[in-house]
């Protein structure tokens, strides 16, 4: 079975290469594998880091499937061109379980691991020691403060948020999040890299939810509350927003798609910070879904059931 090449790439020493060419993505879940994929698609050398080879194997399969979807769009029925695109892109991604080795010549590290500040602190503390001074650090967090995450490092000038959207290969937006200590050079490098990987970048302060989630998550929560009150069925709420507001997915199916663990961690974080804001009170059924492990599409059941 084809899996990632085990880490051992001859790192380029050319001085003429782009500012960001070697990218390390930490976390091979939904977001991390998507970020690795889009970076490799645009020619970056990517190292995808996970805690064990089994998760890397799963990420490898997901990336292969999604690269096939992208290739089909690009090359229609040309089977040879599709295969070439998939193979060449995959060859630029190596998997690793060795953090120090994975950042040895990295220009950019993008972290996409569990939304837990202590875990992220441990990771970035270790990365700060292992990575060379040139390496820029970014977090794809959707619920934590970039400044809080960066606080354990000695490179806040080379730190920021790079917030992607699911599905990463399809969604065109990248939120580039600034912290006060971030240098102009770092910001420009983030913006240039975002453009190079085919995203449209917007800039945002390090504020809860940045732009999209600050608007989207309360909307999802309101839709769930509407469903909890029995004002309308989940199906009808979804149809209403698709046909009445032109959204590609209704809010209940989108909540299932994003994952209830993610949405709950965002809303609980905000509730802790702003306990008086009714909009940020976690919904009961959302908590229940997470307790039951019914996290949405990725587990086969959320508010709806899915064929795995
Ligand atoms: N990789 C590559 N291509 C993919 C893909 C993936 N993971 N998922 C879908 N596609 C492609 C399909 O191949 C298809 O291509 P085609 O048009 O050439 O056939 C195209 O996208 C459309 O896919 P489908 O036909 O399967 O289904 P839809 O037309 O329903 O589109 C969708 C799926 C793109 C997910 C669309 O429903 C959508 O845009 N939904 C909204 C998603 C959204 O809002 N995301 C943001 C969530 S918030 C977030 O991520 C932030 C976080 O912090 C919480």
Tell me briefly what this model is:
The chain is an alpha/beta fold and 308 residues long. The protein has twelve helices and nine strands. Helices cover 47% and strands 13% of the residues.
Any overview of this molecule?
With about 300 residues, the protein is of the alpha/beta class. It is about 45% helix and about 15% strand. α7 links the parallel β8 (about 175-180) and β9 (about 200-205). α1 (about 30-40) crosses α2, α8 (about 210-230) packs across α10 and α11 (about 260-275) crosses α12. The structure holds 3-hydroxybutanoyl-coenzyme A.
List keywords for this structure.
nine-stranded mixed beta sheet; alpha/beta; 9 strands; binds 3-hydroxybutanoyl-coenzyme A; 12 helices; 308 residues
Evaluate the radius of gyration: 20 Å
Bound chemical compounds: 3-hydroxybutanoyl-coenzyme A
Strand content: 5-15%
The 3D shape can be described as globular
Number of helices: 12
Topology pattern, helix = H, strand = E: EEHEHHEHEHEHEEHEHHHHH
Q: Alpha-carbon distance between the termini?
A: 21 Å
Low-confidence stretches: 6-17
Strand order of the largest sheet: 1-4-3-2-5-6-7-8-9
Helix/strand/pairing category: alpha/beta
Q: Portion of residues in helices?
A: 40-55%
- Rounded mean pLDDT score: 94
Q: Largest sheet, if any?
A: 9 strands, mixed
């Amino acid at each position: 079975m084809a899996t990632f090449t085990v880490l051992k790439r001859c790192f380029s020493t050319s001085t003429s290469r782009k500012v960001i060419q070697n990218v390390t993505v930490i976390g091979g879940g939904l977001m991390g594998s998507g970020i690795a994929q889009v970076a490799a698609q645009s020619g970056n050398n990517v190292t995808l880091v996970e805690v064990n080879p089994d998760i890397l194997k799963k990420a490898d399969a997901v990336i292969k499937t999604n690269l096939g979807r992208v290739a089909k769009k690009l090359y229609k029925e040309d089977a040879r061109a599709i295969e070439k695109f998939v193979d060449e892109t995959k060859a630029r991604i190596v998997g690793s379980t060795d953090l120090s080795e994975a950042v040895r010549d990295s220009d950019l590290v993008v972290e996409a691991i569990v939304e837990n500040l202590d875990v992220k602190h441990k990771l970035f503390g270790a990365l700060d020691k292992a990575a060379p001074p040139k390496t820029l650090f970014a977090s794809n967090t959707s619920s934590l403060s970039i400044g809080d995450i960066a606080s354990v490092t000695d490179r806040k000038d080379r730190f920021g948020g790079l917030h992607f959207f699911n599905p990463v290969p399809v969604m065109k937006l990248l939120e580039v999040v600034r912290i006060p200590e971030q240098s102009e050079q770092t910001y420009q490098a983030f913006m240039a890299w975002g453009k190079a990987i085919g995203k449209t970048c917007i800039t945002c302060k390090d504020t809860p939810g940045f732009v999209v989630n600050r608007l989207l998550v309360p909307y999802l929560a309101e839709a769930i509350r509407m469903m909890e009150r029995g004002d309308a069925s989940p199906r009808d709420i979804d149809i209403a927003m698709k046909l009445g507001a032109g959204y590609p997915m209704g809010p209940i199916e989108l909540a299932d798609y994003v994952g209830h663990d993610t949405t709950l961690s965002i809303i609980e974080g905000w509730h802790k910070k702003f306990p008086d804001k009714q909009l940020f009170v976690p919904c009961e059924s959302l908590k229940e879904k997470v307790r039951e492990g019914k996290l949405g599409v990725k587990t086969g059941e959320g508010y709806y059931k899915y064929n795995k």
